[in-house]
Structure formats: C-alpha cells, structure tokens
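Methods — Computational structure assignment.
A single polypeptide chain was analysed. Its primary sequence is given first, followed by the predicted tertiary structure written as structure tokens.
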Amino acid sequence: MRDLVFPDDHSTADLGAALARIPEQLEQGFTTFCVKPDQFLPSSGGTLRKGLTCT
C-alpha cells in the first residue's frame, strides 16, 4: 500500500496532505507535531513557510 503522504519513492511529500491528517490526530489526543522541512522541499532548496493554528 502506497503511503498517503509520499506519492512515490523519489518525490517530496505534499505538505497539504500531511497537515490534513492533523485534525484526526488531535481528536485522538495527540498534542505534538513535528514537520521535517526536507520531506517537503526538493533537494534544490527553498523555504518552508506554512502557518498552522490549532484552537
């Protein structure tokens, strides 16, 4: 079964898809989330800028 975040073995993950899973995890009681920028940026570099507000 293919991972829901990574489309294949060579591509970066989709940040939106990864963040979309957080509300369900909040409902399950998780309170800490880590984002590793290298998973979402191509090896050529760039800046990861995405805000996340939980209330």
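Note: The mean pLDDT is 75.
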